[in-house]
Amino acid sequence: MREKLVAGNWKMNGNLKESVSLLNALVTDISTIGSNTSYAVCVPYPYLAVAQSTLKNTTIKWGAQNVSQHESGAFTGEVSAIMLNDFECTYVIVGHSERRMLFGESNQVVAEKYLAAQKAGLVPILCVGETLEQRDSDITEQVIYEQLNTVMTVAGVDSFRNAVIAYEPVWAIGTGKTATPQQAQDIHHFIRQSIVKQNAEVASGLTILYGGSVKANNAAELFAMPDIDGGLIGGASLIAEEFIAICSAISS
Ligand SMILES: O=C(CO)COP(=O)(O)O
């Protein structure tokens, strides 16, 4: 059985006080739900230390939202995978569409970040997804295949044994427009089949998350689809009750 996962992506939100209180609320509330699923929060870098101290010895894992493709050196403002290890991160998000679009990260750079994360023992959560324009031009599968294939070329298909993929249609992020469960399932199936062609065993064990306006009231129907193994949650992960409700939608 492949791992199910619900991960929060806090993005650039909150301050220290709010982060501490959200983490504490999650720790209290998570104990009320079943545990056949993994849970995680990807917090801003400055709050990794407090995530580490608050979540250690709980069932909630933690991670970062970005990582440098370089090991060390003159890269002002960047954070390496080795540094993330100091905070005992399990996960790091790579290739989020906001990084691709706002910070110009190409498929190649994303693949190098993915590889750097894995080399340091972190589990990359590789985000893929199409814009509305690309969907309307009927090139969704082509776009996603290129995103995946660059990673397979740089890191190999076996690398997906220790990675998670998140399908996040750009048009559904922060817009309140969720992909329908069938639209999401179709792309999840396409992603899994793209990996099956290289290695069926790796593909069947691969956790593929859906992200994009997942809320407590639409999570269960998305998570019920056969190739959707959980969610990457943005806005709703900033409210403890909402995030916990989404987590319980997968356990039930
Ligand atoms: O980008 C996302 C998670 O990485 C999704 O964000 P929202 O859940 O706010 O749409």
Automatic annotation (TrEMBL):
Its EC number is 5.3.1.1. Coiled coil: none annotated. It is found in: Cytoplasm. CDD domains: TIM. It holds the Pfam family TIM. One of its GO terms (cellular component) is cytosol. The active site is at 96 (electrophile), 168 (proton acceptor). Keywords: Cytoplasm, Gluconeogenesis, Glycolysis, Isomerase. It comes from the Bacteria. InterPro entries: Aldolase_TIM, TIM_sf, TrioseP_Isoase_bac/euk, Triosephosphate_isomerase, Triosephosphate_isomerase_AS. Pathway: Carbohydrate degradation; glycolysis; D-glyceraldehyde 3-phosphate from glycerone phosphate: step 1/1; Carbohydrate biosynthesis; gluconeogenesis; Carbohydrate metabolism; erythritol degradation. Belongs to the triosephosphate isomerase family. This is Triosephosphate isomerase. It comes from Nitrosomonas marina. The lineage of its organism: Bacteria, Pseudomonadati, Pseudomonadota, Betaproteobacteria, Nitrosomonadales.
